[in-house]
Fold this sequence. Notes:
six-stranded mixed beta sheet, 19 helices, binds zinc ion
Amino acid sequence: MDANKKWWEKPVRMLRVDYAPNFAAIKEEDLDALARSRREDWQINCEWIVGTPGFTGGGYCTTFKATGYELCTGFENFDYLRSYTPYAHKYSIKVIAYLNMHWYPYEFAEAHPGWEQITGNGQSYGRVNPLYGNGTTFCVNSPWREWAFGLMQEAMKTGIDGIFLDGPVIFPDCCCCSSCQQKFQMQYGQAIPEEDWMNPIWKSFLEFREDSLAGFLSDAQKRVQEISPDGVIFLNAGSWGPGGWRIARDIQKTGPFQNFNGAEAFFHYGKYQNIYGALMTGKYLRAGNKPAVVFTHYMNGKWHYLNLPPGEVKLALAQTAAAGTNPWWALINSSLASQPQSNEPIRDMCSLLEKHEEYLIDAESQAEVGLLFSTQTNRNYLSRIEALYEITESGKEENLIVNMETERKVDWPARKKQCEELLHSAYLGYFHALTRAHIPFDILLDQDLITERLSRYKTLILVDAACLKEAAAAAIKEFVQQGGNLLASFEAGLYDDQGDPITALQEVIGIDKVDGLFPVTMGENYLHINNGHLGYGQGSLIERGAYVLRVQAANDTETPARYLEPIDKVYSPLKGISSYPAVIIHKYGLGKAAYFPEAIGHFFWETGMISAEDRISRMVRELNGPSIIEAEAPKTLSLEIYKQRKRNRIIIHLVNNTVDSRPVNQFLPLSEVRLILNLSEKPRKVYSLIENNDLESCTKEGAFHIKVPRLSIYDIIVLDM
Ligand SMILES: [Zn+2]
């Protein structure tokens, strides 16, 4: 049944080895031996080779013969793509050429007036913000696009299997070049506006940027397929971060025109560490509903001439595979002189993935919870609550209204940044709380908010903010009416897709009226349980987060907890119980909605507060009822559950994220992980593919129990039904 699948629809394991800074050094290699080593020592089946080297090698020059394009120094007598591809194919390795599409030297730009991206105040983006310290960037709507398409076609003529475009990127505050001005005027009948979040035309401009990038990719794909009907093309689709709108990335728009959705999940030293970096990126990409690749730099953070410690590689590979996505690694060849064993963690894992390929194909997630990651919210969410921008904390007052000499002017960029940070924490908070509670969930995109898609879930979660299209709000309403559950918090569902206030979901959630915000203070504020709720006894005091709405509940709701009156100083005496609910539970149609007026995802991510984490996971459990799978295991176990319909089996991926530190030195093994499955029939056979020989299983009180004796890093448990 897999014979009809194209190669990119089956599991792919990608590697890119650069000969930077001297790319021409590849000429000295024995190409047959090299391709064989990629296959045997790295166990990959797809290799990226450089077609245009980017900022270290000229930007516009090629490593292969391309009519009308200039060759890179050192490649005058060596056509890299045409020379290497036959060897790669001999060892069943597909070849993708990397084409730089975002960095060009200034002299090249000067020879091509009108190609550069121009900022809002008319300057060349690359002169104001030199790329990598030196160089500029071109516009997808300018005549450069024909030059780019021509280059792609020349690359495809060499016999490679596809191309990866590194860029183009529509940079922040771009593009206002004459081509864009003209195109925008034609489409919208107006000039490109300045940043003003109350001006609908500004939002049209943001969409115009995304559509321009998608339009470029769509035309590029057509041109590639003219040369090679099965030619693969893709670019960096962007990840889940709410800042993606700044560079006009939206996988929903570019996805239809590329073979893979790919995004970066690089490890960085010293910054905050998201233990689920690869898992979260993978699950986000999986939501795009097409083959996906998680890009994991093998380079050791900013120490590019060395590679990551093996523990980081193993963690990322396990999470990438568990998410149902493909791995990709990049390194610099010279690193192998100091670290000749760099291939080992990749070889070991990739050989397992190859061996068990049949368990990875056509695996459909069985998650019963959908968590919305909304790109239109990322782009257009800007809270209309003025008090949100007035933060009182340890005596420090910040007000993001700048007092100009004659007028009070809103600092839009600062406000937008604050809302973006809030959303960023909300995604991380919910993702962590659900993963750590072993609640299987899918990430949903805006395009999934339709009745047909929603109906396969028991519970839909809207994180601390969500801007919804009218049709999406109607679909959510119908979903709950028909028996679905909704969990929402803070400002989720209070805005339309353009960011204007709406009341469409208030009826579902059971909100009568929003009275504004409690003063924003992190610390010394609480909620009080007035009726037993989520396992907390009557009278319990529980920590609350910084951002909390004062909301009046509708009459037909339950409000088992209320906020205390606000306290603005630490150690001040507690005040009485306010009239404002800390949770609203509302039966609506055949379903139920639960609502926290608090930015609870943000609160959990920013503080790690256990009560916030528990409130999220317990509420989802209460709404969901018995789950298809539960685990008795430490919270650091993550699990994904899939079904292979045609083969009638259930596949469970288990990842042990219990590590000593970041970067990972050591995994601390788990023992006796117990999985409890609620299935309609008893499995015929249960087995582990990787780490365990024997699994004990039994049926107890109608549920199917599996004992996994040990989990070091990664295992796949199979249930033949
Ligand atoms: Zn432009």
